[in-house]
Every structure is written in C-alpha cells, then in structure tokens.
C-alpha cells in the first residue's frame, strides 16, 4: 500500500494541508515545519507523484518544447532561452527532438494520450503542414515556431524570412559583389525555410536589376556544416565561381568557410559570406561571420507568454507574431581590421 | 466530470481493456479498432492523463537528463545520444539545465517531490559533491556522469581525465614543442574537471623531464569560447609566449584559436593547439582541431542501460564505468596538407 498524505501528516504532527503545501512546493510553510514534513516524507518513503498532483490541479507543470534538432546550435540557444522563460513562470520544460520525422512529429503533437502529459507545447514542425494541424484532436495549447505552418489556427511566431534574406543579399550587392550565390535552397516542399529565403534572395537581385543565375542557387538536404561544405565545393567547381555567398544558416556558412579556406582562398577578399541565425560559433570563427540575427530571447519570451495565456483561458483568435531581426556585419563581408 | 474509459469504450463499441491498450500505446490493437477508439477519445474529449497511468503502472515513462548547459555543444551532442538510446527503450527524456547552480542541482536531485515526476535520472553535477548525494532522501535511481562526484554510492560513468590530459600533452611534447601551456585549470574546488586535467598535463611534462612553468597554466571560470580567447590573450602577453596549448575543452580551444589568428599568428606553425570533447565545430574550423574524443554514444548507452537495470530491480553494487576515448589528430597540431 502506498504511503498516504495522512500518514505523513500524523508522523510529522501537522495537518494534511501542510503536508500538501510542502509536497507541492508552496512557499507559505515555515522552514522548521517544512523540514519536519520532509523528514516524515523521507522516513515513510512517501512518493507524492505527478499522478496525484495532476488529478488535483489538472496540470503537470510541464511544457513540451519540440524541435527538429537539439544539437543544432540555433535550437540549443533557443532552448536555453525557453527554459529560462518557462522557469520564471514556474514551469519545467521537456525537450524533445523529432529530426523532422513526420511520424514522430505527428505522434507528439496529434495524439491526445501523449500530449496530455504536458500542459502545453511549443512546437517547431519541419514535416507537418497546415492540414495536419487543423485536424488536431487534442485540446492541449500549442504555440508554433518557424515557417512550416502558416494557417494552422494556432498561435504562431515566425521570422520574415523573405525580408531577412533580401536584407542579407542586398548587403552583398551593396559591397559591389557581382556573382552572388545562395546555399540552402530546398526542393522538398515541406521545407519552407529554404524556399522563402530563396524568394528573398531573388527579390534582392531583381530590385538591383541583377540576373538570377540558376546554377548559383544550390539546394541542400539539411542545414548542417557538411551540406555547406559540399555545396561550396560545387560552386568552386563552376567555370565562373561566385564572389559572394548567402548561406541560409550559419552552419552552412561555417561549412562553406572551411571549404573556401581549405582551397587557399580568402574571405571576404575572394568570396564574401553571409549566414543566418547568429550562433556563437560564427562570432568566434576567423573571419567572424556576418549574419542575420533573429532575436531568440524575444521569440522564447513570446512563445512562453502565449502558451501561459492559453492556459489561463485566453480564447482570442490565434496570434501571429513576426520576430525582430538585425543584420550583424562582421569580418566575413567587411574584412578584418588592419 | 471527466470522461471515463468506460464511456469511451461504450462510444467505440469495444472493451475497456481495448481502450486502455490504445491509450497506453500498446501495439496489439488492430489499426481499424485503434482508429475507432481514437475517434471516440477525440469526440468525447477523453484525457488519459499521466496521472491515471502513473497510478496504474507506478511509472511515468520519463527519464530526466540533468546537465549544466544545453547550449554547450558537448552536452548537446550527448543529449542527442541519450534521447536516441532512451527512445529505443520506450522512454521520453526530459532535459533540464542547471547552469551548475548548486541550489538548482540540489532541488532537482534531492527533493522527493520533484524527482517523483521521473522514473530515473541521468545527472551530470557541477556543484554537488559526494556528501550531498550520500544524504539523498529520494529513492529514484540516478546515474551520475562526470567527475564531480566519485563516491556517491551511485552508478557512475566517467572519463579518465588524468590519462586523457596526459595523452593530449604528450602529443604536443612528441611534436617537439618546448613551451606547452594549459588553458582551463580551475581554482574552485567544486570544479574537478579542470583540476584533473591539470594533473594529467603535469604528469606528461614530468615524465618527459620537463619543468612545469606556473605562468603557463591558466585558470578559467568557465569552459566557454570567451574564456579561451581571454586566456590566450594573457598567454600571448607573456615575455615568452607558448608554442603549444592544451585547452581543456574544444570551446576554449576555438576561443584561443580566434585570438591567435587575430594576431596574425599561425596554427600550428607558431602555436599548436589541442582541445577536448571532439565537438563538430572543431572538425570544421580552419585549421581543424586536434582533440580528445570521448565516445559519447557509449556514454549515453551505458547511462540509459544502467538506469533501466535499476528500474528492473537491479540492486547490485553501484557500477563505475570509465568511458573510452581517443586522440583525434588534425590540422591544429599536424598542419594542413599541402
């Protein structure tokens, strides 16, 4: 038989309510009383499990953060920010990675049985689309991140990818570069990020009356260093290689940088590079990386706040928030100070 | 009133056991039946929460992974490996970061009320020590990672830091370097990693009959890029700067690399560099980073396996496992191929 709150209360010589307050981490218990209760809890081996607490409050205190890849620095940095924001509100974050696997994404977001473990979810889908989420049976609040889903009927925080990519490309045009390549286009239509950034890249070239040269737009399967290194090798093998490259994230740019320097070429003298994400790696590379810097703290703060609002019963129409970003100009386009 | 399993069963026209099987994700339910049950679950808004499941099985299906910093690539890569190993065993991993804060660490590992949310915990402490963990009241199984606690009476997976640091330093001696510095010594006695690696560094110098020069051993507060960059600047300011540096992790080495290249010096021609961790960043830097490579997949696999054994009732004496490692020799010591 499991030990009950009543038995703990008797052992500690306090009321059941006081035991409950200690067990639930409420703060209005005097330290000495708290210690006495904790001693009774330990001696009796009382296990005040989530089960009992869920049944009472209907809440688990857990927020799920579902991301494609935890070991991609952009997501690792975003995760830190979400954990900090959630902790400030008394929530624990459960982090899960999907690797963009549609089955895994569906399992996590769609199924009532799984979702019920969490009070809410912050979800950055890669594979699931608008239609998938409209059919969602679960009533657990979800805040969407990223650009995969645009009409999901859910709170959504995104980045203006077209505008940001246009800004990055325009910077290379303004520096006088003539053959500007792009790494990270995506053919798979479930991968919206690459498609949107290509739209911005094209828009910048067009508004500067530049021709869009198809062979300078390189698709990649993933946004990892290895993809950037390989795509850059392809670009360098062209009869007329580029003198600038806009990479759709910093990992691609760091991979491309490795390839360029490995050939004995210089950045930015021979080839200028711009990335996207502003991860710490790019601030310490040599040359340091010019990049689009989305405000990750703002994204995390808004995501947690929207979720808490829904948990508090907010039933207004879904919010659509566009996160701030800046262009951080560093050595990979400006050169190094003498 | 919450919807009951019985109501779902009646709506779906199946037994309560079948509903329970679907809700608990057991696999012996025919797809058509599963769909029918799911429909009934959705229509009625049945919420088969963790509470009910916990009460039945006594398990939450959650493993906590408690690490100092999620956005440190070594931990991000280890997290990926732990999630994969746990998923294969049907467990979901809850990731939490402590930032090495003793209060936060104590809260997570010591308190019964919190620990009961998880079936078990994989814990890499930075601040808590042997004594702290011996007093642990909770009976939740814990597997320890790292070197902070060595006699905690718990399963423990560690790296032979002294041996690995000796190997790294010996490599620099073998290359003929004369003034070999070390970055990452730690004065705070709760930070064992730095202390142990300094022991290995000293041992290698001693066995090569080299003098240990105190000013060449640089302490750092953290193991971040910024610490490595600053420590390297201090070393370069010495009347006689080093011609090689063993950095106690790759982030320190990448920070040091940034400082060295920023001064117009060459790696390894002027200064050779060795790191520790073998994170992906170091494979793509220019030059690529020679480093100690701990077998992260093996660490993750052992950690999950030890935890599952305890959950299955294994009560044998705590295991002490020393993880494998190798020295990966790359351009930062060998130079780049011509």
Question: Helix and strand layout, with pairings?
Answer:
The structure is a homodimer of 338-residue chains.
Chain A: H1 5-12, H2 16-23, H3 31-44, H4 50-57, E1 62-67, H5 73-88, E2 92-97, H6 102-110, H7 112-115, E3 120-123, H8 130-134, E4 142-145, E5 155-159, H9 161-174, E6 180-185, H10 192-207, E7 217-219, H11 225-236, E8 244-247, H12 250-262, E9 272-276, H13 280-284, E10 290-294, H14 296-311, E11 320-323, E12 325-328, H15 331-334
Parallel strand pairs in A: 1-2, 1-3, 3-4, 4-5, 5-11, 6-7, 6-8, 8-9, 9-10
Antiparallel strand pairs in A: 10-12
Q: Give average pLDDT of chain A, whole number.
A: 86
Domain module tally of chain A = 3
Helix content of chain A: 40-55%
The general outline of chain A is: elongated
* CATH homologous superfamily title of the largest domain in chain A: Response regulator
How many strand elements of chain A?
12
Give structural notes:
The first copy, chain A, has 15 helices and twelve strands. The first copy, chain A, is of the alpha/beta class. Chain A folds into three domains: 53 residues, lambda repressor-like DNA-binding domains (434 Repressor (Amino-terminal Domain)); 128 residues, Response regulator (Rossmann fold), CATH 3.40.50; 142 residues, 3-Layer(aba) Sandwich (Rossmann fold). In chain A, the strands form two sheets. Chain A has a six-stranded parallel beta sheet with strand order 2-1-3-4-5-11, sandwiched between helices. A six-stranded mixed beta sheet of chain A has the order 7-6-8-9-10-12, with helices on both faces. The longest helix of chain A has 16 residues. The first copy, chain A, is elongated and about 85 Å long. About 2% of the residues of chain A have low confidence.
